[in-house]
Amino acid sequence: MKIHPSILSADFANLEAELATISGADAAHLDVMDNHFVPNLTFGLPIVSRLFAVSKLPLDVHLMIEDPDRWAPSFAEVGCDSVTFHLEAAKDPIGLARRIRDIGSKAAIAIKPNTPFSEVEQLLGEIDMLLVMTVEPGFGGQKLIPETVSKVVAAKAALRANGLSVAIQVDGGVTESNIAQLADAGADVFVAGSAVFNAENRNLEIVKLRELAHSH
Ligand code: DX5
Ligand code: ZN
Fold first, then answer.
1. Which of 18, 64, 115, 132 has the fewest Cβ atoms within 10 Å of its own Cβ atom?
2. Ligand 1 pocket by C-beta < 6 Å: which residues?
3. Closest CA to 134 of 199, 178, 90
């Protein structure tokens, strides 16, 4: 059970210091948004590259951008542990996942709440992680959309049936009150932005979330 806090809810003026406050996390989740694929704009490659230089945590980059076929490999090249691109945006998802893996990063595919699991099912053999978005991508602090949880269940069943070891990540609205249910459904990597960054003691919150995920 892994907890990846999203720095979308961190203080963007002090990112190095903010990363130090989540030292107990398994990785830092970096939301790259281009104001085209999603209606919000965050940061891109130069900042991710600098964060890699100062971070003690592995970096899990979530690309909410158009044309990941062009940009995603560069995020692998700067040292991100995993590079996640959206199925809805990729022209050649298999080719892109292979390029990311060839560079040495884990490759992951994300699906938005309205994208059925069946659209990604045939690609599971090509990736290290599947990201099931549990909110519409773009903003932190939203409520989890309950209907998305059945996709986690379907993904887990498909992985088991095919003997594949692919992590299932959930992202959006993950809190103390729903993380056990998500773990029960089959998720094993949990992104939590506001739940961690708004907590008084962030590392304590990470421990609490991990324990709740384990206790399902
Ligand atoms: C939303 C991002 C998430 C977001 C999660 O588009 O992909 O990573 O930061 O934030 P919370 O946990 O606050 O929903
Ligand atoms: Zn994200």
1. 115
2. 6, 8-9, 29, 31, 62, 135, 137-142, 171-174, 191-195
3. 178
- Whether 215 has a pLDDT exceeding 90, the answer reads no
Structure tokens at 73: 């490999």
Q: What number of helices (H) and strands (E) belong to the chain?
A: 9, 8
DSSP state of 41: B
Could you tell me if 64 and 37 are in contact, meaning their C-beta atoms sit under 8 angstroms apart?
yes
* Contact indicator for 18, 196 with CB cutoff of 8 Å: no
Q: What is the pLDDT of residues 45-83, one digit of tens each?
A: 999 999 999 999 999 999 999 999 999 999 999 999 999
Which residue's alpha carbon is nearest to atom 9 within ligand 1?
140
Cβ atoms of 117 and 152 within 8 Å: the answer is no
Domain 2-214 CATH (choose: 3.20.20.70, 3.40.50.10540, 3.40.50.1000, 3.40.50.620): 3.20.20.70
As a whole number of angstroms, the distance between CA 85 and CA 197 comes to: 24
* pLDDT at residue 216 is higher than 70: no
**CA gap 163, 33 in Å, rounded:** 34
Specify which residues 59 forms β-bridges with.
Answer: 28
Structure tokens that stand for 45 in this block:
């490659």
